[in-house]
Structures are given as C-alpha cells and as structure tokens.
C-alpha cells in the first residue's frame, strides 16, 4: 500500500459504498525464525488475534493499516490488514465482503488445481490466507509481497512479456472461471512475489459479470460524463460516456498498464491533471504513440488493439493471447503455465529473507490503532454473531492439522 500516489485513489462509483485498498504484500514461501524448532511447535490454532504477530507498518490507506506479520503457530511471514469497525468501515462492508469472497475463491481454486496432476497453475492472482472479525476489528491476511508495479518503469520487452502474460492469465481466470470483472486494475494493484511473479490484488471493487448492465445510463443534469468505478486514467471510455463497465473495461486497463510499463509514461494523464482533463483525454483524445518509437511493431500492435476506444472493436483477451508479440517466444503460453519460463530477476534488495524483526502481538497493535478511533477495548476472540462467523476464513496453510 505504502505512500499513495494519484494512481492509488479509486472510486467505486457509488455514494453508498466506499473502498478499502488491498494488502500491499508477497509470498515468502519460507518460515521465519521463531527460536523454536518446527517439530516442537504445537498444532496451529484457529486464526485469531492470538495467533498473529505484527511487525512494522508497511501500508496505510483510507480505512486500514497493513503490517508485515507472522503466523505464530507456523512461522509463516505474511501481510496483515487491520481495519477498525468504525462507521466509515461499515460503509465499505460490501467492498470487504467482495474482497473476502474473491480471495477465498482464488485460494480454493489454487488448492484444487495444485492437487491435480498435470494441471496448469493459476497465474496472476493473489490469494487470501485468512479473514476474521472481532467486535472492533476486521482482519485480512495475505501473502507478503516485495513491491508493486507502480515503481517499475520501462521494462525490456522480454521481462514485460512474462509479467503481462501472467496478468492476462489472471484476468482471464477472473472473468471466465470466477465470473468477476475487477474494475480497478492499475500498476499499484499488481504485486510482485519474492520469486518474481506478478499477482493481481485488491478485489474490493469487483462486480459479478452477470450483474453488468450494458444499457447506457442517463447523465445527471449539469454533468457531461460519468466518474466510473476505479482509478482515473484506467477507467475505460465507455464508463465515462455511457456508464457501462464490463470485462472490456479490464482489457482497456491492461492496455494502459502495458503502455505505462513499456514507455514509462501514462498515455492519458500527466501530473497535475484534474478529473475533467483525464476523462476528456480518455474519452476523446486520439492516442498519442510518439513515445512508442522504440517499441517493436508487435508490441505496438498489441497496445493499439487493447486501447481501441470502441469497446466492441477492442481486442479481447483471446485476441491479445494470439498476437505475434507472444509468439516471438516459442510455446510461450505452454511454458508460462507449466513453469518452464523463468520470471525476471528482482533486485537483490527486494529478495532478501523476509524476516519480520521485532514483533508485537496483533492485539497490542490493534489496541493502538483502535484507540485513535475512539475504542476503549480490544477483544481477542473472533465475533460470534452469525454474519461475522460467516466472514471467517482460514487457509489450509494456516489451519489446525
């Protein structure tokens, strides 16, 4: 999550629901040293305030705090998002439930595929490790990630092809298998794991594809465009002009991301642009490709196809997968899915062992956060009301054996 740039401010297009940015984090794949031999550890307990320890704050959003942390029973290093159950958080309850629902779907799908011999891995999607509610807090737990792609500029085409291939796989699985449109794809919502894989995160603005309404909506008096759902500059033209935002909008956002990662600049916004300027650029300004003169013709063609303003003419994900750019690498898709293609190396500073350093109990950290929101006490136990119990999730990696 980190410091929030302009790209980090998203809208859900509704005055009823707010938004919680997702955990900024990546998979460690290993155990943190706890001073106790793994074989001597007691069996993992039910996920709760008692079974999690928090280290340094690694992100702060409008509604929550994100900490590097550790599951005390397994030693697994992870990211912990803590959201006080204030009135503000209640307004984003739908967003949090979507976050939890999609995260669990991804986790369960990865577990199923992992148990089937010969099955291709599910690429490009961050999965959830845990979720629970106390009377005062909402807690979400994910893999811990080393960075996001907002800090990356001007990748060479081989590295870009690997990352973008994983993103296409992730968005296609989200659309075709899980039935959701993301609606907030952007570089800061794409995380890099410690072993170099790209993972899409932040599912708080997803919408079921079955609920997408393609009927143009009337503008309110005095308005000449819709705000749309998501982050300005990544919202598609049809969302601003017609109030329509389906899977085609995710394809548009992928095109903007690809342009930015390939050239280092945003195709439709500059620093200091206001909302009307950005929307006007997206909806009406011809795409300027002058900064793409150093790109290969095949990459140039892919970008143009993804950024066609007419959503019906815009390339589909299948079109993108069949472009010549990917076929510059023999058997690209097969080798990507079965792991024969190696991810680009990350800077050494990012891949150091994910130690958590000094930790405090999550209850202690939660107490400090909650005190600033007017809470007097922190309850260790998870909430037992029916709706809160339904929110609970514990990934098998953290589950009692």
TrEMBL record:
It catalyses: L-seryl-[protein] + ATP = O-phospho-L-seryl-[protein] + ADP + H(+); L-threonyl-[protein] + ATP = O-phospho-L-threonyl-[protein] + ADP + H(+). SMART domains: S_TKc. It is an enzyme of class 2 (transferase). Residues 1-22 are annotated as: Disordered. It comes from the Eukaryota. Residues 1-10 have a biased composition (Basic and acidic residues). PROSITE patterns: PROTEIN_KINASE_ATP (PS00107), PROTEIN_KINASE_DOM (PS50011), PROTEIN_KINASE_ST (PS00108). Belongs to the protein kinase superfamily. This is non-specific serine/threonine protein kinase. It comes from Serendipita indica (strain DSM 11827). The lineage of its organism: Eukaryota, Fungi, Dikarya, Basidiomycota, Agaricomycotina.
């Amino acid at each position: 999550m980190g410091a929030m740039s302009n790209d980090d401010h998203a809208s859900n297009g509704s005055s009823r629901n707010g938004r919680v940015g997702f955990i900024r984090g990546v998979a460690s794949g290993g155990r943190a040293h706890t001073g106790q031999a793994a074989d001597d550890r007691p069996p993992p307990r039910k996920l709760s305030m008692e079974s999690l320890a928090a280290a340094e704050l690694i992100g702060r959003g409008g509604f929550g705090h994100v900490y590097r942390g550790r599951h005390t029973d397994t030693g697994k290093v992870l990211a912990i998002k803590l959201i006080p159950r204030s009135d503000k958080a209640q307004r984003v309850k739908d967003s949090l439930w979507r976050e939890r629902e999609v995260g669990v779907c991804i986790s369960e799908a990865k577990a199923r595929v992992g148990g089937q011999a010969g099955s291709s891995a599910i690429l490009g999607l961050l999965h959830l490790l845990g979720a629970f509610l106390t009377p005062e807090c909402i807690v979400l737990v994910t893999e811990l990630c080393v960075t996001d792609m907002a800090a990356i500029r001007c990748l060479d085409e081989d590295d870009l092809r690997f990352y973008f291939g994983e993103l296409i796989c992730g968005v296609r699985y989200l659309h075709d298998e899980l039935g959701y449109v993301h609606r907030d794809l952007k570089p800061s919502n794409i995380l890099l794991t410690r072993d170099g894989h790209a993972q899409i995160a932040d599912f708080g603005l997803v919408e079921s594809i079955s609920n997408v309404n393609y009927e143009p909506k009337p503008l309110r008096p005095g308005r000449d465009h819709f705000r749309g759902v998501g982050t300005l500059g990544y919202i598609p033209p049809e969302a601003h002009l017609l109030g329509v935002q389906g899977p085609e909008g995710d394809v548009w956002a992928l095109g903007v991301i690809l342009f930015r990662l390939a050239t280092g600049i945003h195709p439709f916004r500059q620093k200091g642009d206001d909302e009307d300027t950005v929307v006007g650029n997206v909806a009406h300004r011809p795409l300027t490709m002058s900064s793409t003169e150093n790109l290969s013709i095949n990459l140039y063609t892919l970008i143009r196809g993804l950024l066609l303003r007419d959503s019906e003419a815009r390339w589909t994900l299948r079109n993108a997968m069949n472009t010549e750019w990917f076929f510059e690498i023999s058997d690209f898709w097969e080798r990507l899915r079965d792991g024969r293609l190696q991810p680009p190396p990350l800077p050494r500073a990012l891949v150091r062992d994910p130690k958590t350093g000094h930790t405090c109990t999550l209850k202690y950290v939660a107490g400090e956060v909650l005190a600033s929101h007017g809470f007097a006490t922190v309850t260790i136990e998870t909430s037992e009301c029916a709706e809160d119990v339904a929110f609970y999730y514990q990934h098998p990696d953290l589950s009692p054996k």
